[in-house]
Amino acid sequence: MPGPQPHPQPAPVGSLRLRPTTAADLPALYEIQTDPESNHMAGTKPRTRGVFFAVWERHFVDPSINARVIEIDVGRGFELVGSIARFQADGHDAVGYWIARPHWGKGIASRALALFLAEDRRRPLRATTASTNAQSRRILERCGFRCVGLRMGEETERFVAREIADFVLE
Question: Is 153 part of any domain?
Fold first, then answer.
């Protein structure tokens, strides 16, 4: 007969978790994606509130999208600090992530991507980053992605024209 089961220990402060994105997360995610410095580094343009919420309405009903929020334990509960998702881009499974600027440089994106890749096993998986975004390039490489080329990206309603590094995880 098995002995008593240990009680789950609380997560240590600073621990990270992923959970499915809900409609209640959207106001916080909207604010995170409006940060000018984040957009400059990523080569993106922030969406308007209306466009942002409309895009997410479509995401919630699209079975090809696996969207998660990234939360860290701040000692008084978990705080939403970013998002990560698998989605379709140019007919391929792709992954993207976004971390709130106050949480940059803490290893959150690397840890979140590693957790996400363990959960979502679709391969090959593609990712892109502005070629000048050295931090994101390192994160992808640490998680097993390899750069397969550079190309010029055109200006769109969402992106600025810039050189893009294409990555793949097989």
Answer: no
